[in-house]
Fold these 4 entries.
Entry 1:
Amino acid sequence: MIGSRSFVVILTNILKHSLETSNLLEALYGERQYESLQERECSLFDHAASVITFWETGKRNQFPKEEEAIWDMETLRLHLHRGDQDPHVRHVFVGADNSRSPLSCSMDMFKLVCSYHQVNHAFLEPVHAFGRQKEPLDLCLAQFKGCDTLSCPAEGSPELPKLGRSGREIQLSYLLRSVESSESGNGVWDWQIRQVANYHSFDVETGRAFWFTIKADEIFEDRIKKISPLLRIPAKTETQDGDVSLYLQASLATHLVYLSWCDENCRQFINETEAGIRTIVTPATRAIVDDLIDKESSFLSAYPKPLRDSRNPTMYSQSQSMSGTLATTIDSEKNKMSMLSRMTNGTSSTLSSWLKQEKSKHADPELGDQYPTCNTTDTSSQPPQPDTWETLNQFRFKDIQTLHKHSDIIHRASLALELDVGVLGDICDFYSQIAATEFREKAACEVSICRFIKEVKSIVRRLETRLHQMRCLAISISQSIQLYERLIQQRTNHVGNWFAEIAHENTKQMQVITDKTLKETTSMHVITIATLIFLPATFVAVRTAYPSLASVI
């Protein structure tokens, strides 16, 4: 547990110095970060799969062919305490299974590295963005913290000549986020917001640089291994005493590897997201909303045809309906006449007058103009389908969910880029202050910092351009969601109209059946009345014609 005790000692010294310099908030901040680290030990670190990767310079400041992976605490301690000076450039990488999994190192190994290199406590807050979590935390948080030990007293930041340190260094840590494409659980590649935490210290006297990078995958580890041999990191014998300009230039170039990652995938993300949105929205913008109108009609903006016909019947339809009703009534009369003629020929005038009254009742076009016949199997009056243009049927609520998903990732990416812009601006301000104070009389260092700031501002401008694109895309998605919701509502209305038409047709069919039943009931009433009227005469006629039956009747 030497690493843990050393970590506490270093943290205590920093807190003591903060209190001595009247920076009470800084002291409380560091203590709170350490307490949070203790509380999250189980979720933040993975003790079963501990591995830390080192990539550092060797003799004459040359990088090796392979990195060195350390798996246990004892090997890590032997690697750090080698009895000679620290390498001029050292990179430490810690990964994880994914961005929401514990870090692949134990807490003791993490503390040992931090205590050995006197890592500032401000780096602990970016570390908390990692660890086991069900859902992403911190809502795309990006932050920067810079400090230095240039004016610290000797007891606050002791010189370590045996390790090649002067005790005067600049320290900065930052947390950046950007979009990355990764495979989801169902095998589909999707865009997610990923984070990287980076800590850097630079000794202004010796030019030694230390880097501590935490990223779930190995993207920065691979890039640093590729770019580091290309940087000019001369041996100590090749530089003048106190000249750290080349080392500073190499450190600033390494910063750009991390900072440029913020804009790396934005173009592909915007293009793929826009293409996915266009696939859903384009059919919606071309849909014919008034799809109940007849395709051959020239009045596409008029009332739907079934409603127009039922509300404003033409003269032709009225005449057809009236003639059909009259024909139906005459047929009914003939049937009724034949039935009564078989009873008696003397009742024709009375029955005819009765039927004329019935005809006058049912020849009203308001009652029978739409139904000239009683044939219920006629298909000419079938209600129209709700989607005659076959367009609204392709719109689904699932598409709105997809649009909302695109909208959510765009808003999160926009927030991440906006916060990244703030971090990059803080880095520029930090190095501008360092150039104006510590490197004020070192022209080579000032030139390197000016070039670095120019490159960072170029990245900022690119990020701002991506922000404008994403904001425009977010507005387009919002409008598309509104259009899609209205189309689905329109489809719902059309389906409702369709069912209303079906119900109306069923009502009319029931009316036809009711009218037919009424007519048949009337006929039975006529027959009953006629029978009751002529039944006595029939008895008299039978008794007269057949006297032998008189005794029976």
Entry 2:
Amino acid sequence: MPIKTIKQKQQFHIPYSLKCAIKMTFLGVTLTSYCFHHLDRKLEAVSAKENSSSFGERAAQVT
């Protein structure tokens, strides 16, 4: 009888820890993708500023 209860506990415990791990992984992936999205936007803005400024400098050099 005690052996059976131990097996049942293990069967319940493993899926729970798996669910927790999946949740944590999902949260981590969501956070990293969110951060990378914002970083990409910042980099795009910076590169756009650099491109516009260099374009303005080129226009000034031409004229």
Entry 3:
Amino acid sequence: MALTRAQRCLVRVLRFFSGAFLTLLSLALRVSALLSWKAKGARGSRPAWRTVPPPDQPLLLLPAGELARRIRRRELKCVDLLETYIERIKQVNPLINAIVKDRFEAALQEAQVVDQLLSDGQEDEESLQKKFPLLGIPVTVKEAFALYGVVPNDGQFPDAVGHRINFLCTGPMCRYAEDMELLLRVMAGPNISKLKLDDPVSLQKIKFYSMEHDGGSIFLLPVDKEILQAHRKTVAHLETDLGVEVENVAISKMKYSFQIWSVMMSSKSSDNQENQTFTDLLGDHGKPVWPSWELVKWMMRLSSHTFPAIALGITEKLTKYNSKANAKLASMAQSLQTEMVELLGENGVFLYPSHPVLAPKHHAPLGMPFNFAYTAIFNILGLPVTQCPLGLSKDGLPLGIQVVAGPHNDHLTLAVARYLEKAFGGWVPPGQS
């Protein structure tokens, strides 16, 4: 699916202006930091650059499953565990601003109820594990999700209505691979019956496939060398340690991951109604917005919208007015899904980079805002994916790889995740290198 000459030209223009913007922004930030340092230096103080300190409490480093077992066995008080986590949050949140809303007091009251329930001794350990597998475990919830008792954060785009619900895939995020299945069983609810989590997995019998990059999309950055090295190291370890053959594949349609995602997210709903576009949301109470004009205003610092928002709006316009290309991309999405399902079968996994670049600095994604397509494409294809950490880069940034399987074969990706954790060390506490 080739882009038209006009589309290629527009992409080059966007890249040029975004690159120029990032260069100027970087220079401005350096000058600002230098002036700030001199001003503080004149007052006899220097700026303190701080990083997140490593966890200093052993409880913070235990898997959720182990903590839940200790609570059920009355070996650990829920209140004590919660207070340990609250103290940690208060220690690091001023540095990273990860928690935007807390409910510490309410959580402590709930923890006391849990401890009272356990002290009454009316439920044995086996019964508690079956009814409340995560009893007493502190959890955090992303602010974009509706949570009982908390004002919802409306305005997330794309919205999950109609067929888009199938593209909104939310899974557990945890530090240890052993906790993935535990959390997945809880989050899946009645749909857990569709999975095969109780099926035994022989890693030596899995068919492994590998692809190091998307094939060269003009919308995405090339894969970083350190990510490639980690990918190849993983493949080599699988072949050496398990004695399996990892087959390198070149799936040409992956090059169009972003275009496929964009078209599928903006396609008509099942009742043939047009979905609300991102450009519609940019308007103020129905006032029309022209993304191309906003781009001109943005370059003159007159637009009230961000560059990624404008770029997405322009992309929507390009796809909307090219019905023939849209039809081809929609067909390509179905063809790619069929190709992947046939390739993976019931006993195959696909190794793919989690992201083309290492964790970027602030504002860096402005220059290439569509790198998320490396993960988003699998939401469109409806395939289960487990993201696996592979240690840290030379600069202390996380490395990772995606493990993809056929529909409802999450047990394969989870088994590979547990193996890779043992092989490469898994999650590394912050502040370490």
Entry 4:
Amino acid sequence: MHIPVHIETAEVVGHARKQVRCEKCGKDFEYGVIRRAAGDHVSVPPFVSSRAHERAEHVAQQKLERSLNVAEDLVACPHCGWFQARMVRAKRLWLFKIAALIAALTPWPLLMLSIKMVPRNRPADEFKMYLGTAVGSAVALVAVVAVLLAFMFRPNAGAFFPFSKKDVNRGKPAKVS
């Protein structure tokens, strides 16, 4: 049975200024963050509202506000060049999330390869053992690489890998009011 639905989507972009006090030199600086968020509203045709787009936009706006509140970009202090610990942690967390996604997706191609590689006349128990070893090893390898990448990322020591130094901005001295 087919049930039609109406999906209305909206995308919003916003920016905010972040005020930071450097943990090394103690001076204030600021930087800008830009974030994008999408929202949607799903309804069944008899109940399609003329305000569906407004609702989708409202959801997108709420997501954008949350995103801007927690936004942390990697920005060096304009006075001393130091990267704040919370900015480095946020970037490392991003690395871990990407690695977790890769680790979750890694077993599927291995599963397909191992099905093709194991001869058909082998017992099922031997196949399960081989498959468990192959998939477990691949996931463990991805996890180890992720941890190494995260710990190799030390911007205050000049180690930006896997990012580039050109991806990093310098903040602007805060305006005294």
